[in-house]
Structure formats: structure tokens, C-alpha cells
Amino acid sequence: EQSQACTDARARFQLSPVPSDEENDDGDVVNALMSNQSDGEFPSLQFDGGSSATVTMIDQPNNISPDSKYPNDHQVTNVTYVVRKHYENFETIDWLKDLMRNRIRHRILRSQRRDSCRKRLAYYYDAWSGWICVLLVGLSAGLVAGFVDIGAKWMSHWRTGVCTKAFWLNREQCCWDSKDVHFDEVHNEICSHWHAWSDIFGMTYTTAGAWFFRYFMFVFWSVIYAAFIVVLVVGSAPYASGSGIPEIKTILSGFIMYGYLGKWTFLIKSIGMMFATSAGLILGKEGPFVHISCCCGNLFAKLFPKYGTNEARKREILSAAAATGVSVAFGAPIGGILFSLEEISYYFPYKTLWRTFFCCMVGALVVRTINPYGNGHEIQFPIEYNAPWATFEVIPFIGLGALGGIWGALFIKANIAWCKKRKNTRLGQYPRTEVLILTLITAIICYPNQYLRLTMPELIKRLVGQCHVDDHMDLCDYDRARPIETATSKLYAALAGPGLHRALWHLFWALMVQAVLVIFTIGTKLPSGLIIPSISIGALAGRLIGVITEQIAFKNQHLAILRHECGVSNEHCVTPGLYAVIGACAFLGGVSRMTVSLVVIMSEVTGGLSYIVPLMITALTAKWVGDAFGDGIYEENVKLSGYPYLENRESFRFTLKAGEAIRQSKSGMATPLAYIVQDGMTIAAVDTLVRRHPHSIYPVVISEEFPCLVGQIQRRDIMAVLTSRRVQQTLTQPKTLLNRRTSVVSLSALLNKSGQPSSIGVRRASIALQASKILQLHKLVDRAPIIVTDQTPMEAVIDMFRKLGCRQIFVTQNGRLQGILTRKDIIRLMHEANVQKRFEHI
């Protein structure tokens, strides 16, 4: 140990930025180059690609200065480490370096395309790889969406009964070819082929015992579905829980989360969406489709080196995949593009727009071909009316928008508070028990209400629809003074009948139940989306307000504000179904704070292109009211998880300069600035530095007396050198080979997958490490860091972080290094500025 300390005391680092050979940055595999071939005892290591990082170990006597020419060339051992290009987990990518590496790779392919036919084909394949990749993403996302929609609907209906002629058919499909189809109070099909569980076991349908048995089977299957998927998610794929949209936003901003877009997450979340929605919980599967599509994009991107080996370019595919998730979930391709552009994407170049358009189109075509909704087209909640809306209805539309914004703010605060309690208490240690209890409570509460017994897409479809002549459900029970002559006659306004009054109370109870239960459901260890629950709650509130507005308008047609719109004919001047559409837009906008994409999605989902202006009014009102109380649900979840997401739409409200921000970030911290001197540091000093200050990157300065910045070096590169040297010294045998050229391989070649020294690595390891060495690491130094002066306004610094995708920026004063600003520092400063502004307004 004493000799080792002496060795470290004399071993020196040299980080001088000497010129290096032209390097190819496309290498992605950890390997080693032997700069000097041994004389037969050690096998040479081949490298496929260019070098990217060099470490030179020079064995020399103590009386030879580092800058002198080496008289004994046989004492020199040159080692070249090719450090991995992939990033560590939970690390931010370097956008500038990745895009530069992609340009270098493209130039090489372009310059070599005329050398041979093979290289020409490789060039054309690389040029078309983006279109091929998004084509595969669109096809796979559409297939998964169709499979999930069909499976979820069948499993949901299985809780209430079974089709005896073909058990794989849901209720609607089972009654398609039946001649004696009739409907119940909520427009559910009733036919001879579909049998409830009480009928299967020979019970009389109208008895109390049969009702309680159907009640028991409904609760039983709900708990079974939830138990199966929560065990699968918690045990095999924890990343499959939640909607995934906050994490996708963070990943697209440049954050690395290995496994979040993996194949196991993709498989389990695809299955989990069917079981979670079929269990009757207040959650949706449309939000998780964004996560599923991004998993497809990540898996297919690995097939193309252009995207698989470059994290910045991969995010172009992920942006297109996120848009496709909305496209296949709702049948809204244009809305999906705008959703990705407005809400999800961080880097969205112009060429990505066309590929996203193509990807969404393919996904929508696949969904239309599969026809999971059974209506012959890809629209999920089609409306079959085109009645004009009255001018006075702007008032209830604005009221619905304000109500949606208020509910969104209340939901966000309540849900985030519950998630914090789950995270900080023992409740978070029992995710399976929480899901089972929540499922049991939900099923027990929902079954007595026939509207809550429906799936949320079925409920929304009934709420946004218009009553027809042959509709006999409670929502269409009006006391009409005269009968309708024909089925094609237009309906006229009338007083609400007893069935409609009964339906309103059921809808109000359903609204209260869903609004409360969704607070505790979102955030559990299940694949759970918030889009469909928000639409459902908003449609319930909108339908209630629509019916109330309709009755007020019918009873007060003599008023001046209503006489022009409602006194002309006996037709409806107020359409309650339209209010359900407006309410859905308001409540979803109040939660997510979307505007343009929300209006387009709602127009595409319903097919109601005539109601774009009311949707715009409602969406803007909901956003304005919601923003008065805080951020949207996705931004709050990002903050709750502590992800380093730099919001690109938020303004910085302080007039600080970079030097002041450095001093403010150092306030209360006694830790000095950690940097590496380019010449003269011992290996022991560097090892102590990286262990005491575990930063991801270190500045390299000329000297302690004159800390002029010359570059930056990554921690992982230093650790690879130090760890490799330590392992090699441990593996050194007593019979050292002196005065000969040997080679040292990197740590990855010395260790096997289990982390133990491998036999091949031991045979290849160097045994020529002597007591005095100098490590020349000049090729590890990045000599193009981003530098600003201490007088640079923080607005400009924040724009550099946003638009350049910087990981850190060095601040200098008169040429001397003053400090470092990282992405987390910027996020913290912006958060403190926002908090201080809110206190100023109190």
C-alpha cells in the first residue's frame, strides 16, 4: 500500500490540448487499440470504427521530464481507449455533439458513395431510413391500438355477461345479426344471444338474487383484472405504470431513461391497458398510447444506425411516434401532429413535421382498416347533427370553460397532494393492496348506477349524441305535445319528462363519483391515462348544463335574447349533445392546458367541424382560468418526479446576469469549484477530486494561479482510466515484463458481464505498469466548451440552454473561470423566480 501511494504521488496527468489526428466519432463499442504491437504473446485487438478518446501511459525514469523526447522508445506503452458513446442512465444528452457527430457521419457516407455499389446502397438506405422507420412505427402503433381497443371492449362486456353463440364477441357484435334487438334505459343492446351471468347460472333475471349475483360477478371480474395487471406491472415492468406523457416530455427534452421505452415496458403496458380499463377504474388507455408508440419508435430506431446510435436524432423518431399515439388513440392524425408540436416535443425540425404527418397517416389508416369502433370509420365519438349554435350560447360556453379550468386546478392540486402522500408515507410500499382496494370500491360504487356501469367511451358516445325519434333511453324522454309523424321528422323542443329527470340525477351522481375517484386512481401502479376521464367528466357536466340551458330556453322563448334564435320554429335552438362536446373540451383543457391541438383533436374525434369557434372559446377560457392557479398536470408531474425538464415556454422574470446567478447558486455552499489542471496533477489528486466531487464533467484550466479555461473532460472518461489502471495493477503478476512494448485494454475488456475479471481480459491485461508514469489524456479533453462572460444576461443564457440543448455553460470573468451553470441550476433559478413572483402578488 505504501508503494502504491508513492506510485500515485509520482504519476502525473497531462491534459494539454495538443493537436490530435482526425477522428471519426461514430464508434459506439467499447474496445481498445494497441498502438504498438507486442511480439506475439498478446493478441492484437481490432477496432471497427474511428478512435474517439486516447490515453497514453509513458513508462520513463524519474530523471526524464514529461516534455522531453524519450530516448528509450521501448519503454513507451501507448494505450488508446475508445470510450462508449452512449450516455449513462438519468443523464442529459449533449445535443450539439450528437448533431455534429451525425453531420460527420453523413459527410463520410456522402464522400464514399461513389467508391462502390455497396457504399452507394448504404448511402441511399441511410437517406431513406427515416421514412422507413416512421412507416414501421405507424404500422405497429395502429395494430397495437386496434388490438387493445377490441380486447378492452370485449373484456369490459365480459363483466356483465357472455355471448353464448360465440364467446369472443362483445355485446354489440353479438347482437348484430339478431332480429329481436331492443335497448334498455342507457341504450344497451338486449338480444337472445347475449346472456347475463345470472341467466348462465339459471336464475330468473328480475329477481333480487339474480341482481346481486350480477353485482357480485361485476365486482369479481373487476378485481381479477386489476389484480392480474398490478402484479405484472409491479413485478416485471414498473415503468409501465401511469400515462407516460410527463416522462416522454422529459425524454424528448434530452433526458436518458433506459428501460422506459424498452420491449418489456411495451409488452406489459399494451396488455395492461386492456386489463386496467376493463376493470372499470376511472382511467383511460388513450394517454398511454403515446408511451406505447414511443416504445415502438425506440425499438425500430435501433434497426437504423442513423437513429439508434445518436440520441439527438432518435428524438425525431420519438416525436413522430408520440404524435402517432394520439392519432391511433382518437383517430385524429392532424390533432396528433399538433399535440406533439405543442405539448410533447422539445426539438421539432421541419423535416420531422413531414415524417410525423406520414406516420400519423399510416397509423390512422391501419386503425380504420381494423375498425375497432365498429362504426366503419376511425372517428371514436361521431356526432350526427349539424345544428347551428345560437349567439347567446357563448355565455354558457364561457361558463363551461371557466368551470373546466377551476376543476382542472382543483384536480391537479388534490392529485399531486395525494401522490406526494403516497410517495412519502407507507402507502407507497403497498401498491398492490392500494390498487385492489381502489378497484373494489370503484366496482361497488359504480354498478348500481347504469351510466357508471358503462365503459367511459360508451358513456361519452351517449352523452355527445343527439336524441332520435326511435330512442327510448332516459336521456331522450321528453313530454312532447304531439307525436312525431315520421322517423325523418325533425325533433322539436319540449319539456323534460320523468325519465330525463331520473337520468339527470344519475348523471350528477356519476359526475361526483368520477370526479372524486379519478384523484386517487391517477398515479397508481397501473397503466392509466387522464385524457378519457377528463373528457368523460367534462361530457357529464356539459350534458347537465346543456339540458338545463335547453329547458330555460324553451320556457323563456319570449325574452328578447332568445326570441330571434328560439322563436322561429319548433326545432331545437339548444343541442344538449353539443354542450357535452364543449364540456369535454373545457375539462380536458383545464387539466392539460392545451389549446390549438385540443380544438383540432375534439373536432376530429367528434367530426363536428361546425363547432370550431365554440371549442376555441372554451379552450382559451379553460387555459386562462387554469393558468391563474398553476401549471398543467404534466408539468406538475415532472416537478414531482424531479426530472430536469427545462420548460421552453416559460419566461425568466429576473434581470440577473450570469455572474450573479453563479454567486446566487453558490450561496450557502462552502464547496469550492472543482477543476483539473492541465499539467502537473498526480493520479492520486485526480482520483480524490472525482470521488469528492462526483460531477458529470470537469473544467480543465491552465493552472491554479491562472484558471483560464482550455476545455472540459467527462467524469466517465477519467473513471475509465483510473479504474482500468487500478484493475491492471491488481492483476499484475510478480514476473513483470520490463523494457518491452505492451498494451493495456479498457475496463470493459477486463471484466465480464457479472463484473468479475474475465480470463481473456486477464490475458490481455498489461503487466508492464511501473512506478513512474505520465498519463497523457489530451484526446479526452473537449476543447470547444460553451463559454459566456459574467456580464451575459440570464435571458440569453436560458435561451442558449433551450435552443442549443446545452448540458452546462462555463462562466468566465476577464478570462478566468468563475463557475458553471448546469441545466438543474437554471431550473432551480426559474422555480425560485416564479415562487417569489407569486409571493409578491399575495
TrEMBL record:
Its main location: membrane. InterPro entries: CBS_dom (IPR000644), CBS_dom_sf (IPR046342), Cl-channel_core (IPR014743), ClC (IPR001807). Residues 1-29 are annotated as: Disordered. SMART domains: CBS. One of its GO terms (molecular function) is voltage-gated chloride channel activity. Residues 781-837 form the CBS domain. It is a multi-pass membrane protein. It comes from the Eukaryota. SUPFAM superfamilies: CBS-domain pair, Clc chloride channel. It is found in: Endosome membrane; Membrane. Keywords: CBS domain, Chloride, Ion transport, Membrane, Transmembrane, Transmembrane helix, Transport. The chain crosses the membrane at residues 123-148, 215-240, 261-283, 317-341, 353-374, 394-414, 435-452, 503-523, 530-548. GO terms for cellular component: early endosome; endosome membrane; Golgi apparatus; plasma membrane; synaptic vesicle. Pfam families: CBS (PF00571), Voltage_CLC (PF00654). Belongs to the chloride channel (TC 2.A.49) family. This is Chloride channel protein. It comes from Didymodactylos carnosus. The lineage of its organism: Eukaryota, Metazoa, Spiralia, Gnathifera, Rotifera.
